[in-house]
Amino acid sequence: MQEHALSDVRVLDLTWHIAGPYCTKLLAGLGADVVKIERPGGGDPTRRTGPFLKDEPHPERSGLFHHLNTGKKSITLNLKTASGVNIFRELVRDVDILVENFRPGVMASFGLDYETLDKLNPRLVMTSISNFGSSGPYRDYKMTEIVADAMGGLMYVSGEPDRQPLKQAGSQAQYQTGLNTFVATIAALYYANETGIGQHVESSIMETMNSVVQYPVIAYLYQETIETRRGNVGMIHPWGIYFCKDGYIGIAATSPLWQQLVDLIDTPEIRDEKISTLLGRILDRDAVDAALYPWLMDHTREEIYHAGQKKGIPFSLVRTPEDLLNAPQYRARGFWVEVEHPEMDRLTCPGAPALMSETPWQMGRAPLLGEHNEEVYSKLGYTKDDLVKLRERGVI
Questions:
Q1: How is the chain split into domains, by residue range?
Q2: 251 bridge partner residues
Q3: Which CATH architecture best describes the domain 239-324?
Q4: Which residues are CB-neighbours of 251 under 8 A, at least 6 positions away?
Q5: Which CATH superfamily is domain 10-213+333-392 in?
Q6: Which of 104, 172, 174, 374 would you call most buried, defined as having the most Cβ atoms within 10 angstroms of its Cβ?
Q7: Consecutive 10-residue averages of pLDDT for the chain (396 residues)
């Protein structure tokens, strides 16, 4: 039995920024041998993106780069040189997966399009990630996270009803694209292993975001209704995010759970007959909130959360990043993992996204730029002297 689920899988990683590296990070976590190819001298641009340890900018101390590249190897290779392209061709002959997220047409400009690489390695699964896809009128258009949210439809239904559409926090479009692409790549690998036939897998960030926001699209297709922004207000009440003594708490008391909430708070205001029915609570949301707030402001998030859960009410803690690191549930399941890094000492990192009983998640640090040049290139027959010459010529 192999130690990890993908221990015998070899991957070439030609990705940068977030979506592509997150896809290959997941492959590495399942045990694949992922070799990240970076530009000589600079490497992945996220090496120069914060947050940096102790707020000291350094290409080996980027928290974002480390998060997205754990468990990988790093080699440097200049694909803008003929020698670099030839070396890449040698590398691709003996791998199972190639993941790239250049602009459409860039790989072809290097002479490394799928049709060419398929002749070198018919079992190759080549995965391409782009903003809008390799075809269509938007193919060459630029994209940022806010563009992805807007063009994919998520922004239209996000935010308060009387305000402009709202971008989601963070880089959800990028991470979701990386996850979707990972799944498609694994499926293509399974097919290649069964048939010996590789294929080109393609994903676009805009299409990923449309898949995230399916309900409003379905509502329009079936009913020709357009979903409106509701902010934190639901179709029922109370439903939303509320202040409490030390922060915020999420409350979702559906009609079957209302009596449990009444019993928990147990004040005359919460037992008022005018809010005893679902319709009454929807029509007089202010009265419901006025009955809730005195009790909420007398209790902490933890007190409210556990009291609600004991009553069967799905309250939720709105946790800060510090809360997440200290959350007992995460710690009990060993989610946070410590790894050693030569430039950043001991780091705490998110661990496995899912637990596997027989082939556990593989956790490792992110590589230093070009750290594995000798290891990888020596397998192709290059000597140390060869590598010195290639470095002097700007090939690696």
A1: 10-213+333-392, 239-324
A2: 240
A3: 2-Layer Sandwich (3.30)
A4: 238, 239, 240, 241, 242, 261, 292, 308, 313, 315, 316
A5: Crotonobetainyl-coa:carnitine coa-transferase; domain 1 (3.40.50.10540)
A6: 174
A7: 87 97 97 97 94 92 95 97 97 98 96 97 98 94 92 88 90 95 98 97 93 79 79 84 94 90 94 93 94 96 94 91 92 93 90 91 94 97 96 96
